[in-house]
Amino acid sequence: MTSSQTILVTGATSGFGAALAKRLVKEGHRVIATGRRTERLTALHHTLGDALLPVTLDMTDISAIRNVPQQLPDAWRSVDVLINNAGLALGVGPAQDCDPNEWETMVHTNISGLIEITHAFLPGMIQRQQGYIISIGSTAGTYPYRGGNVYGATKAFVSQFMRNLRTDLLGTPLRVTNLEPGLCGGSEFSDVRLGDSAKAAAVYEGTAPLTPDDIAETVSWLLQLPAHMNINRIEMMPVCQASGGLSVQRT
Ligand code: NDP
Ligand code: 8X3
Predict the structure, then answer these.
(1) Which pairs with CB-CB distance under 8 Å and at least 24 residues apart come from 166-172?
(2) How remote is the CA of residue 15 from the centroid of ligand 1, in Å?
(3) Tell me: the pLDDT tens digits for 241-250?
(4) Which ligand has its closest atom nearest to the C-alpha of 219?
(5) Helix axes 114-128, 62-71, angle to 10 degrees
(6) Residue spans of alpha helices (H) in 36-148
(7) For residues 122 and 8, what is the distance between their CA atoms, to the nearest angstrom?
(8) Is the model's pTM score more than 0.95?
(9) Can you tell me the distance from the alpha carbon of 155 to that of 111, in angstroms, rounded to the nearest whole number?
C-alpha cells in the first residue's frame, strides 16, 4: 500500500492522532480526521489543507458513528484505512475506589465506539476488496498494573477483538493490526487520566518515553508493507521501560 490512500483517524485532535494526520498527509494520503474538539480539527485543516477532512465525532455517540459512512462526501466515502486511535484512561486508583461513571466512559469510548466504527466501515471495505484496520491498543491490555483495572481491560478487549476480526476476515484481502504501545509522552493522555498537568508531567520525569511521532512512524511503516503481509500485533515500549514481574504481599 504505497499509493495515496483515504485514511480515517479517530481522535485526531491531539497526541497520536494529530501526529498520524500530519505524517499521513505529508506522505500523500487523504485523511479524515475525527474528534470532539471541532476547533482543533479546523486548525488541522488550516495547517494541512484539503487533503484533510475534519469530521466532528463523539465516539460515545453510537448513532452518529453508524451514520458516518453515509454522511461523508462522495469523494471521501471509500475509506481504505481505518485507524482506531481515539481512547482514554481515567484515574489510577484501585478498583474499589474508582468512579463507575469513569469506567463507563472508558468502556463506551475504547470498546463500544471502536467496534461500532469498525463495523460501519467493514461492508464498504469488503465490497471494494480493499481495506486495513489498525487499532491502537496498549501494553496495558497485556500487562496488569495497579490502577490499570478497567483501562487495561478495555485494551485487552481491543486486542482480542482485533485477533477475532482477523480470523473473520480470512479469505478477504483486508488486513488487521493491533498496535500496542507502552509509555508514551507528548500527548494529552496523562492530563486526561489524572486531570492535573503537574501530576501528568511527573509521569514522564526522568524517562525518555515513546513519542506520538514514533507511533506515526510505525503506522507509516505498516502502510508501506506489501499487500500479502499482515502484521497481527506490535508491542512497543521505550528502552527505559520493561515489565515488572508479579507482586507479593508479605505479612
Ligand atoms: P490524547 O489524550 O492526546 O488523545 C486522545 C484522542 O482521543 C483525542 O484526540 C480525543 O479527542 C480522542 N477522544 C477521547 N474521547 C473521545 C470521544 N468520546 N469521542 C471522540 N474522540 C475522543 O492521548 P494519546 O494520543 O496518547 O492516545 C491515543 C490512543 O493511544 C488512546 O487510545 C490511548 O489509550 C492509546 N495509548 C496511549 C498511550 C500513551 O502512553 N499515551 C500508550 C498506549 C496507548 P477529543 O477529546 O477532541 O474528542
Ligand atoms: C497507556 C500506557 O502504561 O499508561 O496505554 O497504561 S499505560
Answers:
(1) 166/230, 166/232, 169/126, 172/126, 172/129
(2) 7
(3) 999 989 999 9
(4) 1
(5) 30
(6) 38-48, 62-71, 100-106, 114-128
(7) 13
(8) yes
(9) 8
151 catalytic per annotation:
yes
Q: Is the dihedral of CA 227, 68, 141, 20 positive or negative?
A: positive
- Separation CA 67–CA 59 (nearest Å): 12
Give 9: exposed, middle or buried? Use CB within 10 Å, 0-12, 13-18, 19+: buried
Domain ranges of the chain: 6-236
Residue closest via CA to ligand 1's atom 36 equals: 138
Task: Give dist(CA 126, CA 246) in Å, integer.
Answer: 43
6-236 placed in CATH 3.40.50.720: yes
> Taken in order 221, 225, 227, 230, is the CA torsion positive or negative?
negative
Residue 180 CA to residue 53 CA, distance in Å, equals 27
User: Under 8 Å CB-to-CB from 3, ≥6 apart: which residues?
Assistant: none
The per-residue pLDDT for range 46-97, each reduced to its tens digit, is 999 999 999 999 999 999 999 999 999 999 999 999 999 999 999 999 999 9
Atom 48 (ligand 1) nearest CA: 36
Contact indicator for 79, 117 with CB cutoff of 8 Å: no
Query: Which residue's CA lies nearest to atom 25 of ligand 1?
Result: 15
Q: Give 210's strand partners.
A: 184
pLDDT digit string (tens) for 140-172? 999 999 999 999 999 999 999 999 999 999 999
